[in-house]
Amino acid sequence: MILVQALLGLAPVALFLGALFVLDSYKLIRPELLVRAVVAGVVVALGCYFIARSILASGAVEPLLLTRYLAPLYEELGKGLVVVWAIRTRRVGFMVDAAILGFAVGTGFAAMENLYYLSALPGSSLLLWAVRGFGTAILHGCTSAIFGIVSKALAEARAGETLAVFLPGMVVAIVVHSAFNHVVLPPMMSTGLLLVSFPILVMLVFQRSEKLLRSWLDVGLGTDVELLEMLRSGEISSSRIGQYLRSLRGRFPGEVLADMLCYLQLHVELSIKAKGLLLLQEVGIEPPADPQIGGRLRELGHLQRSIGATGKLALAPLLSASSRDLWQLRMLEARATPQART
């Protein structure tokens, strides 16, 4: 009996997360990051458990009020912090990545929560566990995924990851969570609505993200290759880029200008490398780890420190520094072999 309850409570959300990962044709979320997100969700659930205990022990809030309003607030904030960290540290490049990672956080949270209820309610009915597994557990994944989708979309639209871009998605996640806890509809009907609406949303996000990724690869790769050919052939001196670089002579010492040119070329080479990896993944080829990537990324970091913030700002017109282009360097770092990163 307890095994069936555990399967009903834990299997649906885990299978849904696995399906999201498998259906992502580019596999941009690395398995180790997915595991870390699930573990983070478990930690958040433990923290929320102690918060709820403290609130109820104080006697200041009725349990119903806690369930309907306070719990959705601090639970979504806790899960959302993990997604905010992933977006702001360039660990996700597209909306679908944010959706999968958000759902992974919710999966860990739901697993921990249902394990607690499994020990607290050992004799409960299978219907309750069906609702918890297919309803409440999926809800935790859905709200975190929605938060990730909305936040990543706004971050791209506003070309930044300020805290303001995360507010709308958090409001949506809290409202959806609170509405579910109000039990406006019968539990089975709410669960059914969730199981129908969220896959549709995910399908639309997958389609949109793959379209954006394809467009970014087509445009960005052509631009990067053209710039790299100019840098290697020496033709850049007669181009508008060369004229711009010559205009910087009066602002930077010669050795800094040399480092700026090296930084520009290495950044473009790594950008092409990252886009090439994505194209290989699109056709189902998993490229081997490149032991040189770690060293080249360290060299890029050294050059960045050498030219300083002013030098990097001067190169900004020549290099795309959007969150997606910075994310591709993070992706390369994640693919470097352990030997290359040490």
Report on this model:
- The chain is an all-alpha fold and 342 residues long.
- The chain has two domains: 2-211, no CATH class; 234-341, no CATH class.
- 80% of the residues lie in helices and 0% in strands.
- The chain contains twelve helices and no strands.
- The chain has helices spanning 2-23, 31-58, 63-88, 95-120, 126-157, 167-181, 187-233, 240-246, 254-282, 293-315, 323-335, 338-341.
- Helix 1 packs antiparallel against helix 4 (95-120), helix 2 (31-58) packs across helix 4 and helix 3 packs antiparallel against helix 6.
- The radius of gyration is 24 Å and the shape is elongated.
Sequence-ordered SSE layout with sheet pairings:
Blueprint: H1 2-23, H2 31-58, H3 63-88, H4 95-120, H5 126-157, H6 167-181, H7 187-233, H8 240-246, H9 254-282, H10 293-315, H11 323-335, H12 338-341
Helix pairs in contact: 1-4, 1-5, 2-3, 2-4, 3-4, 3-5, 3-6, 4-5, 5-6, 5-7, 7-9, 9-10, 9-11
| Terminus-to-terminus distance | 49 Å
Helix content: over 70%
Radius of gyration: 24 Å
What is the string of SSEs from the N terminus onward? HHHHHHHHHHHH
Summarize model confidence as the mean pLDDT.
85
